[in-house]
Amino acid sequence: MSQRSVRLKLLGEKSSVRSILILSTLFLMLMMAFTSCNKKTASQDYDNANDEEAALDAKVKKGIKPVADTEVAVIDAGDYGKIVIELYPNIAPQMVARFKQLIKEGFYNGTTFHRVNPELGIIQGGDPLSRDNNPNNDGTGDSQYPNVPGEMSDIPYERGIVGAARKGASPMPGGGMTETQARDTANCQFFITLKRVPDFDRNYTIFGRVIEGIKNAEIIAGAPVDAGTERPNPKIIIKSITLQPHP
C-alpha cells in the first residue's frame, strides 16, 4: 500500500472518530436538556398541585358551629321508614337553599337511594334519572338548575352527616376537570354517612345531619344489590321528602 493510501486511510479513520465524538457529544447534550426539561415539568406540576391544594384549603370554612334551620327535611322511604335531617344554612347556605327548593317542587318524590355501601358507610340518593328503568344511568343525573358551588367546612364526616354529591376530578392532558372545578358540581344528589369517613373531610359540602331514623338508613345500606354493584335491587324508592318545623 502506498504512503499516500496509508495517509488517506488514517485521515478517514480520524474523521470517523471525530464524527462519532461530535455525535456522542450532541446526544449527551440533548439527553441532558431533555432530563432538565422533564425535571422542570415535574417541579412545575408539583408546585401547581400544591398551589391548588392551598387555594382549596383557603376556601374551607373553619371553626364554625352548625346552626340548625327552622325546618327539617323528612324522607319517607316507605317500608324502610323515615329519616329526619336538620339543615345547616350557616355552613352551606346555597346547598340548603337548593335542597329546600327542590323539596318544595316535589323533585325528590319517586327517586331512589340508588347507591348503598355498608363497608364504606354511605347511602346516596336524589338522582332524577333513578326513576326510569335504565339502571346504568343512576347517579349521573342533575336537576334543571345550575350546579351549586362547593361550600366545604372543617366539620368531620361522622355518623349521620348529610353531604352533597358531586363529580370527581378527571384531569387529562389539554382538558378534563380539575379538583377545583369538580368541587363546584354539586346539584341535587345527596348522601348520608353511617360512620366516620375521614377521606370525605373538607372534600364534600356538608349541609345537614340525621337527627332521627339513622337506624333506618343503616337498614337501607344493608339492602340486597345487583351483583358487582352498589345498586339496590329491588329499588328503594323515596316516596317523598317534605319540610316540617324543626322539633
Please explain how this structure is put together.
The protein is of the alpha+beta class and 247 residues long. It has two domains: 58 residues; 175 residues, Cyclophilin. Helix content is 32%, strand content 19%. It is built from four helices and ten strands, in the order αββαβββββαββαβ. The strands form two sheets. The protein has an eight-stranded antiparallel β-sheet with strand order 3-4-8-5-9-2-1-10, with helices on one face. A two-stranded antiparallel sheet has the order 6-7. The longest helix has 56 residues. The N and C termini lie far apart (113 Å). The N terminus is likely disordered.
**Could you say which overall geometry the principal axes of the C-alpha atoms support?**
globular
What is the mean pLDDT? 88
Strand order of the largest sheet: 3-4-8-5-9-2-1-10
CATH superfamily of the largest domain: Cyclophilin-like
Features:
10 strands; Cyclophilin; eight-stranded antiparallel beta sheet; disordered N terminus; globular
How do the strands and helices of this protein lay out in sequence?
Elements: H1 3-58, E1 71-76, E2 82-87, H2 93-104, E3 113-117, E4 122-125, E5 161-164, E6 170-172, E7 175-177, H3 179-182, E8 190-193, E9 206-212, H4 214-221, E10 240-245
Can you give me a brief rundown of this structure?
The chain is built from 4 helices and 10 strands.
